[in-house]
Specification:
Length: about 300
C-alpha cells in the first residue's frame, strides 16, 4: 500500500532507501481512487523514529494510504522541535473535522503515572471518544493499549516489579481470526513496559476477546468483538536496535533495568541483536489494514 506522505518528511527518504513505496502529494493527485485515511497519534518522545517505524509497516501493501500525523496540543514536546511538529503534524483538534478509516495510538513513556495525571489525558480521551464513532478501526499500542482499555472498559493496569523488556513468544488463543491469518503457531512480539493486565478482568468484559497471550508476557493482543478496536501490549514496529537503545538509555539514567530477554545473542551485550519479528510485524499490519480497515470501511465513510 503506497503511503501518501509529505515529500520532505525525513521518513520519506529513509523508506525510499529501503525500497518501501512512498508517494508524494503530487503523484497521489494523479490517481483517481479514494485513499484510506489513517491518523497516527504519535505520543512517543522520539517522533521521527516512531513515525518511520510505523510508516514502514503501513507502506507494504497495494492500496494508497493518506497519513495524518497528530500531536497533542496540551503537551510541550521535549525531544522534537516545535518547527518540526508545526510542519509535519496537525494539532489534535483538526482530527475532529473529518472521519478516518483507521487510527493508531502509540505508546508513551508515562505508564507508571496514573492516567489522570498525564497532562494530555483529557485531550486523548476526547480523541478516543471521537474515534469510537468516527474511525472505523483503531489500533492501540503499548501504553496506548492500556489507556484505551482503561478509558473504554475500565480495565486497570498494574505495575510490574521490574521492567518487562525483550522478545517474547506468543500463542493464538482463538482459531479463524483474520488479524492473525498466516501467523506461525508461535510468534514473537517485542515488549518494553512497566505495567501489565490481569487476564481475568479482560475475560469478564463481554465486549472483548483475547487473541494472543504469552507464558512470560501475559495477554498481548485483544480486540473488541465489533472489530473496531485492536489492543497490543507490545511493539511489533520496533527496529532491530530499539530495545538495545532503550536499555543503554535507562542504564545511563542510573535505572536498574533487566537485560532485554531473548534479545542479545547468548545475553552478551557486545553481540549485535538480530530481528526475528519483522515478518510477523508486516503480516500483522497488512492483516489489520486489509481485514479490519479496507475490507470493512464503506467507500463513503469519510467526509
Amino acid at each position: 500500500m503506497p503511503i501518501k506522505i509529505h515529500s520532505s518528511l525525513p521518513a520519506c527518504s529513509v523508506l525510499e532507501k529501503e525500497n518501501i513505496f512512498v508517494m508524494t502529494e503530487k503523484r497521489a493527485a494523479t490517481q483517481d481512487i479514494r485513499p484510506l485515511r489513517i491518523a497516527i497519534i504519535n505520543l512517543m518522545p522520539t517522533k521521527e523514529v516512531t513515525e518511520t517505524q510505523l510508516l514502514r509497516l503501513l507502506g507494504n501493501t497495494p492500496l494508497q494510504i493518506e497519513i495524518s500525523l497528530v500531536r497533542m496540543e496540551h503537551h510541550q514536546s521535549k525531544n522534537t522541535d516545535k518547527s518540526y511538529l508545526d510542519k509535519f503534524y496537525i494539532p489534535s483538534k483538526k482530527i475532529f473535522e473529518k472521519k478516518y478509516d483507521g487510527m493508531i495510538i502509540t505508546g508513551a513513556p508515562v505508564e507508571q503515572m496514573n492516567f489522570e495525571d498525564v497532562d494530555y489525558w483529557k485531550e486523548l480521551c476526547s480523541i478516543m471518544d471521537y474515534a469510537k464513532e468516527n474511525v472505523f478501526s483503531t489500533l492501540f499500542l503499548c501504553w496506548g493499549c492500556f489507556a484505551g482499555l482503561y478509558h473504554y472498559y475500565g480495565i486497570n493496569k498494574y505495575l510490574l516489579e521490574k521492567k518487562m523488556s525483550g522478545i517474547f513468544m506468543n500463542e493464538r488463543t482463538t482459531e479463524g481470526e483474520p488479524l492473525l491469518r498466516g501467523f506461525d503457531d508461535t510468534f514473537p512480539i517485542p515488549q518494553s513496559r512497566h505495567t501489565t493486565l490481569k487476564k481475568e478482568e479482560i475475560l469478564a468484559c463481554k465486549d472483548l476477546s483475547i487473541l494472543a497471550e504469552s507464558a512470560e508476557a501475559g495477554v498481548t493482543i485483544i480486540k473488541s468483538k465489533d472489530n473496531r478496536q485492536i489492543f497490543m501490549t507490545g511493539h511489533l514496529e520496533y527496529d532491530t536496535l530499539t530495545l538495545s537503545e532503550e536499555y543503554y538509555r535507562d542504564i545511563g539514567k542510573g535505572m536498574k533495568v533487566p537485560l532485554p530477554k531473548n534479545y542479545f545473542p547468548t545475553n552478551n551485550v557486545n553481540r549485535m541483536p538480530t530481528s526475528y519479528w519483522r515478518a510477523t510485524a508486516h503480516l500483522f499490519y497488512s492483516n489489520w489494514l486489509n481485514y479490519y480497515v479496507y475490507q470493512e470501511t464503506p467507500f463513503n465513510f469519510t467526509n
